[in-house]
Design goal:
The protein has 508 residues and is mostly helical. It folds into 2 domains: 16-40 and 242-508, no CATH class; 56-240, no CATH class. The protein is built from 20 helices and no strands. It has helices at 22-55, 60-81, 85-94, 100-124, 137-141, 146-161, 166-187, 195-220, 231-240, 242-254, 257-265, 268-289, 292-305, 308-335, 337-342, 352-378, 380-407, 414-441, 451-466, 471-493. The radius of gyration is 22 Å and the shape is globular. The relative contact order is 0.14.
Amino acid sequence: MSSAAPTDTPVDSSQPVGADNVDETAALAKGGRTSFFGFLLRLLARLPFLFIAGRMSGYGADALGRFAYATMVVELMAQLATLGLKRGLAAELAKDERPENHVVADALVLAWAGAILGSVLLIALPWIVFPNSRISGIDRWFPLIALAVVASDVSLAALAFRRDIAATVRARSVVEPWTLSIVAFGLAFTPVGGDGLIIAYAVSLTFAMLASVIPLVRSFGLPRGGWWPHPGRLWRIARANAPLAGADVADWGSRRLDVFILGRFAPPEVIGVYYVAQQIASLPQKLKTSFDPILGPVITTNLARGDLGVVAGHVRQIGFWIGAVQLGVVLALGMTGRAGMGLFGPAFAQGAAVLALLLVVELFAAQAAVTEGALIYVRRGANLLWSMIGLVVQVGVTLVLVWYFERTGRTSLLAVGAAGGLATAALFLSIAKTQVLSRALHAKVSGWRWSLIGAGVPAFAVGLGVQLLAEPLQLSVGILAILGVFGAIVWTTGFKGPDRLLFRKGKA
């Protein structure tokens, strides 16, 4: 894999963030803007789905909880099957040793092979996917949708290497979520009942796969010219990506273990409420993933040149961009949490405390996620080790809290315990991974700035006032007021020079 051996020469981190390479900073900003637009589109489609699943007859919290657990298991299997290639493919393509469409074809074969093995296992043991409910014929074959998931993941990773971020926006922010909402709505009027959510999910991922593979073939072409999936070559790629695959699974698992543990202690209704809170809270996390497609290619290119200082600068820049936008979103959604959760039904309003905790998780996890975007290329083993330690921390804290609340009869707080364990692990990993990357690059990598506090405190004060309003006003005027105050202050006091490239075209 492409990497650079860190030197012992300290890098000057006092220069303006992104000043090392303004062209690349502009490219990162452009990629982030494109994906951020996709994030907004995804938000517009995801909220109707949650409303349909929570409110419409035939669905509700129970059906949503069953859907959440089943999709969690299948997505975990798909994550394992991709073998880290969602991020590792950029390094394989950067080697420029073989035709690019040959490398992409190898990646697809590996991912499909893993998905087939995983699907066969889950089809043979369907109770793993649906532990506390009946299993119909449709349910048994549901794991096969992992084939579509991995095909889409690898295709979009390859297109991102060529900086085609628009393909990701179309597939993940338009085709997938809108298909999910439309099909779920249509099936609500049929006899399929709660299985309608599962069917809608499978249909949406199939369409997303088509929206990913078609532009892949157009861009790279078919793997002609003597390509053949040689077992030895495939094994080398799989082995080289093993640490990255482990880190991906650990990171993904940290976002799903809470649901898994709840599934063993709590009824489906509690899981359904937690799932809605999780979906809302994960919206700020989508801001970080907006930069993933463009960050990998930029970092691998600079590491191949040995420009460690440039890499550190890009990590600091993106860390600040994400932190600034996330903090505003977290304040707006957190301060109006009860009103927001209540949109999906009276049973969901009780999840306001869980929502607040999960939003804090996203704030803690942002820096760890950004630093990992570089760490996977310079310290893969260390990144995997810390990811696994973080997973242990999360499991330990979550089990203790959930066990305590269950033993004391406070089942309504089981979801709070799961969120609390996740928050503890997120803070731990944020500190640990930032320190590891900083030592590897001999430069500051944290994107934190005190101007964020200067904007956050007034916005929090506005949020306290917003909570006195009626719930419809909180969700309309209130959210805009919190975001407006935060945005105005952070723009004037925090965004300087290259920082503003995120919101405008051209160079600073």
